[in-house]
Amino acid sequence: MSLRQPNLKMAKSHTDLRSKILITDTPDDIKLKIKFAMTDSLPGVSYDPESRPGLSNLIEIMSHFDEGGKSCVDIARQYESFSIRDFKNNVTDCLLGSLSGIRNEYKRLLETENGRYLDEVTMNGAERAKANADATMRVIRGAVGL
């Protein structure tokens, strides 16, 4: 199967695994996902979610990881003279640098006691969510007279 799909864009709800970047992705996976992320053929980099949604999505991703807290407009302005390929390389570098520590810690937690800590955190979170949902349902039932 080809990695090129014209309608593929980064979206966490999309069922295609290539449409999202996971902390468990290898650096090579991330490079490929960014390389083949849908953009357009217009020259330069600009932030315009309506006219350039694919490129704007990459700018938004980069803004989330920008250590200086730059806005999407500021990032687009910084890279406006770059080619799309060069901008994608910068997005890749940014993500790889930002995710490496998170990925390493996640792997360490998975390898420690077969991931028991993560299992405990998940179970505790599920118990708290259930308690909150139960409390909300009591309020709703009372409000509607059930």
Structural features, described:
Mean pLDDT is 87; it is low at 1-9. The chain has helices spanning 27-35, 53-65, 72-78, 84-111, 116-144. The protein is an all-alpha fold. The protein has 5 helices and no strands. The chain is 59% helix and 0% strand. The longest helix has 29 residues, at 116-144. The protein has a domain at 17-113: Tyrosyl-Transfer RNA Synthetase (Orthogonal Bundle).
Largest sheet: none
**Any idea what the shape is?**
extended
Care to count the β-strands? 0
Task: Give the low-confidence spans.
Answer: 1-9
* Helical segment count: 5
Distance between the termini: 53 Å
CATH architectural arrangement of the domain at 17-113: Orthogonal Bundle
Radius of gyration over C-alpha positions, nearest whole angstrom: 20 Å
Q: What proportion of the residues is helical, as a percent range?
A: 55-70%
- The name of the CATH topology of the domain at 17-113 is Tyrosyl-Transfer RNA Synthetase
What is the CATH H-level superfamily of the domain at 17-113? Tyrosyl-Transfer RNA Synthetase
Overall pLDDT:
87
Indicate the CATH class of the domain at 17-113.
Mainly Alpha
